[in-house]
Amino acid sequence: MSDPIIRRFGFDAVEIEALTWGDPGDPAAILVHGFPDSAWTWDVVGPALAAEGRYVVAPFTRGYAPSSLARDDDYSLGSLVADIVDLHGAIGADSRTILVGHDWGGAIASATSSSHPELFDRVVLIAIPPLPTIVNLFRPARLPANLPTLLRQAPRSWYMTVVSTPWLSERIGRRLVTTLWRLWAPGADVGEYQRRGLEALGSRKRLRAAFSYYRAVWNPWYRRTRAHRKEQRFAFDSPRNPTLFLQGAADTCGLERTGARALEDLPPGSRRVVVPGAGHFAHLEARYLLGKLLGPRTFRNPRRTEQHLINRLAITAALENFTAFLGHFVLNCSWDRYGADPDMTAIFRWHGAEEMEHRTVAHDVAEYFDPRYWRRVQTMLVVFPLTVWISSRFVWYLVKNDPNAPRSRLRVLYEVIRAGRLGLLPTARTVFGSAFDYLKPGFRPDATGSMAQALSFLATVETRAKAA
Predict the structure, then answer these.
(1) Signal sequence: where (predicted)?
(2) Which residue of 59, 255, 340, 409 is surrounded by the most CB atoms within 10 Å?
């Protein structure tokens, strides 16, 4: 990860500091952070875009340190859009620019595309649908149909009431920010980003500035300057650039269904993508799902680094116990009898045979470095519930996106149990049995299934491939 170059830009009402990566001569990408975050949220995306030939500029929006407070005290959406337009001009960008926004940055990006589409080639919105999609949820004609969604969204938007309340919100602001990070990124390793966000909002004046973003939207008497009338007037119109809208399927801030009709408010060439397993910080969380467990990490103490590597080996060994179990299942399941596609069945069985073939590698290496039985128990106690949770979330995601599948969770559970009885899916008993087998003191992976069967299948596939 390359370190950014920090630049500072002076505009009429504010000074904006930004992190930059890449060559200033390349087409630009402007990345706008949200609340309660900072420009450091892009410290992985920024270098990646720079490597693809983009000059990346990630500003700290007005009020967020180290950018200045607004001299005109205007934190309306129009003023935030004007800052992006001014930044676009200050870096000498052209119409090839990509505009990316997360959370409040997404709202700013949506409004900027509405009023100044000529400045950008494409737009990416993360976590927040285009602003007209939100407005349309409250339109009287659509209210009866949207009421269930609004009622489910309301408990997730409680914080907006808090930040819109002057004086009180500033007093409890830091605790509120910490709470929101915990609620919006459960289980994700985002501690460094939370710390950076708290630094950016490190005083009551800074908190008041960030909270004023919300107050300017909800308060019709909010004092706005006349300098940004165009930006304010078009702010809630539809974006006019092709837009990619990313949502985390597990977002605890905004419901997935809140943005379900986003494409109706976006121009041709736009897409909506729901990221399985990701929450509100989809650009951060998806890469942490397994990276937190298996990703490289170093410590000052060499012994801790060694233990971390051994932990990764142990986790991989536990995971491979399940992949070997699944490999044995697909080699012996009853899919053929129920009309499964023969090509897809062959692909699954090839993968299953491959998993069976190397089922002992990670286990043997992990046992060599740390043969303690308790290590194996600890690892399985972590890996088993995590595997079940990820698998269930993935299944439910597939079901929700299958127009022919039942929508009731109880009905889906019934179908899963029924499929297990028919031999189409592993049963709960065999899944738990696989975990308990792993916990036996004398466990060896080669006790799972038959290596001869796996090698025989692979040999058959190779023979067919040569004949073809």
Answers:
(1) none
(2) 59
Grade residue 37 by pLDDT with cuts at 50, 70 and 90. Answer: very high
DSSP state of 68: P
Whether pLDDT at 405 is above 90 = no
| Spatial CB neighbours of 200, under 8 Å, sequence gap ≥ 6 | 37, 38, 60, 64, 65, 66, 206
Select, from the ranges 27-41, 222-236, 276-290, 353-367, the one with the highest average predicted confidence (pLDDT).
27-41
Helices 104-115, 77-90: crossing angle, 10 deg rounding: 70
Side-chain-facing half-sphere of 173: CA atoms under 13 Å: 26
pTM above 0.70, yes or no: no
Q: Which residues of 309-330 are buried (b: 16+ CB within 10 A; e: fewer)?
A: ebbbbbbbbbbbbbbbbbbbbb
Contact 238, 132 (CB under 8 A): yes
User: Which letter does DSSP use for residue 268 in this model?
Assistant: T
Local structure of 123: helix, strand or coil: strand
Counted residue by residue, the chain has a size of 468
Sorted by where each starts, the structural domains of the chain and their CATH numbers stand as 5-139+177-289 (3.40.50.1820), 296-467 (no CATH)
